[in-house]
Design brief:
Order of helices and strands: HHEEHEHEHEEEHEHHEHEHEH
CATH topology of the largest domain: Rossmann fold
Mean pLDDT: 85
Structural class: alpha/beta
Number of helices: 11
Distance between the termini: 27 Å
CATH architecture of the largest domain: 3-Layer(aba) Sandwich
Low-confidence stretches: none
Helix content: 25-40%
CATH class of the largest domain: Alpha Beta
Number of domains: 2
Length: about 250
């Protein structure tokens, strides 16, 4: 099965328009079902065509064998492979079975690029992390955005406990096209950044914090109640979701 990506579909249609390929041959190229049934999973080969992002493998709850099966199906169809929330123990088995994969332990992501990614971004996606403990979620966002073809810059450890550290990056913040701001504890950083820039801002609450943070719920509610206009909030620890939203804004 060959992936029908936006680029592949445009190529087929252009070849039909030029007379290089007839309609019947083009039909044969795209007529296959948009998913591949593996029994335990139905791999969506047309998702990039519909949604702008190919299918991504969420590792928790899956066995190593299931992850490997989906990864191979995506790879063999010509899609890039992205596996999120992959812990080191399972990653060892998965990367042994699919050695093309690169494992980024800091982001809990394994990936394989199907060729050089097309540069889709109009500008820079800036990923801002409040503290060092927020870096796994921030790196999930940053690496996902890079794999989707964007230029990404990072600003780390600029939480409100030392707000002067953030102000030192004011011009960099304003130069971004989209910002992803990651914070745990009380979740105040997105509101502060939102008051400094006129760019789309995606806030990511993390589960980092003491007991009254309720596993990130305090940060989530603070971000949802931000008085800074233009702050959009994703779910707790959802760096991947923030990156996809930034991708759709910045492309």
């Amino acid at each position: 099965m060959t992936a029908v990506t936006p680029e592949r579909l445009r190529e087929i249609l252009q070849r039909v328009a030029s007379g290089e390929v007839d309609a019947e041959a083009a039909f044969e190229s795209i007529k296959r079902l948009p998913f591949e049934d593996l029994g335990f999973a139905k791999v969506d080969h047309h998702r990039a065509l519909r949604a702008g992002v190919p299918e991504v493998i969420f590792a928790p709850g899956k066995t190593a064998a299931q992850i490997v099966g989906v990864a191979r199906a995506l790879r063999d169809a010509g899609h890039s492979v992205l596996i999120t929330r992959l812990n080191p123990e399972v990653a060892a088995d998965v990367t042994a079975a699919v050695p093309e994969l690169t494992y980024a332990a800091h982001a809990r992501i394994a990936y394989w690029r199907a060729g050089a990614p097309a540069v889709r971004g109009r500008g820079v996606i800036m990923v801002v992390a409040a503290g060092t403990a927020d870096l796994p979620v921030a790196e999930e966002a940053a690496l996902t955005a890079e794999l989707l073809g964007h230029t990404v810059e990072r600003i780390t450890d600029v939480g409100v406990a030392g707000i002067h550290r953030l102000f030192a990056h004011h011009e960099r913040l304003r130069s971004a096209s989209v910002l992803i701001v990651v914070a745990g504890m009380e979740g105040a950083l997105p509101s502060v950044v939102g008051g400094l820039v006129d760019r789309p801002l995606i806030a990511v609450p993390t589960s980092i914090g003491y007991g009254a943070s309720f596993g990130g719920l305090a940060a989530l509610l603070a971000m949802l109640n931000s008085c800074a206009a233009g702050v959009t909030v994703v779910n707790i620890d959802n760096g991947f979701g923030a990156a996809v939203a930034a991708h759709l804004i910045n492309r």
